[in-house]
Automatic annotation (TrEMBL):
Domain of life: Archaea
Species per Swiss-Prot/TrEMBL record: Thermoproteota archaeon
SMART domains named among the record's database cross-references: CBS
CBS domain ranges (all copies): 7-65, 68-128, 136-193, 207-264, 310-366, 381-438, 532-589
Protein name listed in UniProt: CBS domain-containing protein
Length: 604
């Protein structure tokens, strides 16, 4: 297996002159482990990892990527996967950039240990070592909850430790990793400050509590799946009394698959795997399968092509424009998507309302920018916008969109570029696809997409992102209070100078047993009821999906509540129509494969 088969597109790309504080903000936003540094023509010159960006201990640091850049290792796309793994272990990195070749050092991707592990599981490989005890790393780093954070910081930065276990009386109570320090800022002790170091805080204030552990007899497959689902650096390994025996790291698990048990390691008896439980993890393929009422997908000849539904007029901004300008263009022209151009006028990506909604869900909102970074379109835009042929069927277009987890695609044909968006697809569905499916055949099951009134805005955004939704229903029981639409959610925080909050007046007593006369204002985050829009329209689960699409367009919302026998069962959104059309494309592909197999058998 080659590197190019496994690598992913980089989510963060920087230049050597980018400030480390900006890179840290990008890593916090995307969860990236590696940020490749490129110069003109995407020539790769190095990279930084999480351990490098936490070297700065002040928000006012002037340090740039070139001050901490790593020149090695650089992987190449034709490199063998085993060789790439050995190189990453030798240099103690969890991820590294991939260049085209030695002669052409152009950035083509990023490879991480998680990518390697995911590819091995997907390909059906079985580990050569059976249990955690066969590949456990017995050396680990630990500290007490009362230890100063600067001492742990030195272990992470200077000693290259993946994580520090926090122990009390021989038992683990927490863990601290470079990601914990990236996600927080209160630990900063201003090492670079001319005024002197601020008194460092204690580890207990910054560690992750409630650590999940493994036992020596746990099967490797279970640990592999858990690391992939949660993107952990390692898991502590404990005995029956809860005392730490060691750790199992990402590289240990990959080692178990590629090479087997480590030499001179005591092998623990395998523990029978527990009864599997349902875990809510939604992949693109899962999204197609999850519906309230499943129906057989009929393979029909394509009705429309990308050229038939694409928007002929595309509005654009530059990557250096202010976000306010982009928002104003969306409002003025009533569009949800903009092309993003670089200084030379070339297409660099696309900006949609969905991109902005994702940014809203971050801890420490991206709107609170420091003075030197007021523009951040290039940080939240979609860099890899799929391009389809103008003659591609509508089903092929939407399956491409779903695979890339975005809601638009560029169309090339006749020497021009167009754009297909989810709004274009809903209009086409309402006009041409009557009778294709019922509402119950499109919506998610188990009331996915319904939230209570006092649910936090961050939770709403996370729900919409993880389930490929562009609307949720706010309800109490079966009573609908309103709908939060992606298209409306974008503008409310922006037009209030991006600092809107709820203000609640509290009253307290100045003296014991006295009257409540002292007032103070408490500022709290936005909740679902602050962002919802009242909607008086609802649809039945047995209604034609095309009629639901017409109602959405008529009332200007991205979703409508769905009822069945008087009970609220879910929400139908515009992206549900994308999923429905994609199912048709998958069915057509499976039908073609089936015919090819039958033809090959007859020919043989």
């Amino acid at each position: 297996m080659k590197v190019w088969e496994v690598m992913k597109q980089p989510t963060v790309v920087v230049s050597p002159h980018t400030r480390i504080t900006e890179v840290k903000a990008l890593m916090k936003k995307t969860g990236a482990r590696c940020a490749p540094a490129v110069i003109e023509d995407d020539k790769l010159v190095g990279f930084v990892v999480r351990r490098d960006v936490i070297r700065i201990t002040s928000l006012k640091s002037e340090a740039k990527v070139e001050d901490f850049i790593r020149r090695h290792p650089i992987l190449f796309k034709e490199m063998d996967l085993q060789t790439a793994f050995n190189v990453m272990i030798e240099h103690n990195v969890k991820a590294a950039p991939v260049a085209d070749s030695v002669e052409n050092p152009k950035l083509v991707g990023v490879l991480s240990l998680m990518d390697i592990l995911r590819s091995l599981l997907t390909a059906g490989y079985k580990p050569k070592a059976r249990t955690v005890g066969e590949v456990i790393t017995k050396e680990y780093c630990s500290c007490k909850p009362s230890e100063r954070i600067d001492r742990v910081w030195h272990k992470l930065v200077d000693e290259g430790v993946d994580a520090v276990l926090v122990e009390r009386n021989g038992r683990i109570v927490g863990i601290i990793t470079p990601k914990d320090l990236i996600d927080q800022r209160s630990w900063l002790f201003h090492l670079e400050s001319e005024r002197g170091i601020r008194s460092p805080g204690k580890v207990k204030s910054f560690m992750t509590k409630g650590v999940i552990v493994a036992h020596a007899g746990v099967p490797i497959e279970m640990v592999a799946e858990f690391l992939l689902d949660h993107d952990f650096n390692l898991l502590p390994v404990v005995d029956a009394d809860g005392r730490v025996l060691g750790v199992i790291r990402q590289e240990d698990v990959v080692y178990a698959y590629l090479q087997g048990a480590k030499p001179v390691v005591e092998v623990a008896p395998a523990i029978a795997p527990p009864t599997p439980i349902e875990v809510e993890y939604v992949t693109p393929s899962d999204r197609l399968k999850q519906v309230l009422v499943e129906k057989a997908v009929e393979v029909r000849p394509p009705l429309l092509t990308a050229r038939d539904v694409a928007s002929k007029t595309i509005y654009a901004v530059t990557s250096s424009d202010d976000i306010t300008r982009a928002i104003n263009i969306m409002l003025r022209h009533k569009v949800s998507h903009l092309l993003v151009l670089n200084e030379k006028g070339n297409v660099e990506g696309a900006l949609s309302k969905r991109c902005i909604v994702k940014a809203l869900g971050l801890k420490g909102p991206i709107w609170r920018r420091r003075a030197y970074e007021p523009r951040f379109i290039e940080q939240i835009m979609m860099r890899s916008v799929p391009v389809v042929s103008a003659n591609a069927s509508l089903e092929e277009v939407v399956s491409t969109m779903l695979f890339h987890d975005i809601d638009c695609a560029l169309v090339e044909g006749d020497g021009a570029k167009y754009m297909v968006t989810k709004d274009d697809l809903v209009e086409a569905y309402a006009k041409y696809y009557a009778g294709r499916a019922l509402v119950e055949n499109l919506i998610y099951p188990h009331k996915v997409g319904i939230v209570p009134r006092h649910c936090s805005l961050a939770h709403v955004v996370k729900l919409m992102e993880s389930h490929y939704l562009d609307a949720v229903v706010v309800a109490e029981g079966d009573s609908v209070e309103g709908v939060i639409s992606e298209s409306k959610l974008v503008f409310t925080p922006v037009k209030d100078r991006l600092e809107r909050r709820r203000r609640i007046t509290w009253v307290r007593k100045i003296e014991r047993a006295g009257r409540k006369i002292a007032r103070f204002v408490k500022v709290t985050p936005l909740v679902a009821e602050d962002m919802m829009v009242p909607v008086n329209v609802k649809v039945k689960a047995t209604a034609d999906a095309a009629e639901a699409a017409k109602l959405m367009l008529e009332h200007g919302v991205d979703g409508l509540p769905v009822y069945d026998n008087g009970k609220l069962v879910g929400v139908i959104t515009k992206l549900d129509f994308v999923r429905e059309l994609a199912r048709g494309a998958i069915a057509a592909l499976e039908e073609r494969e089936k015919k090819l197999i039958e033809r090959a058998r007859k020919g043989g």
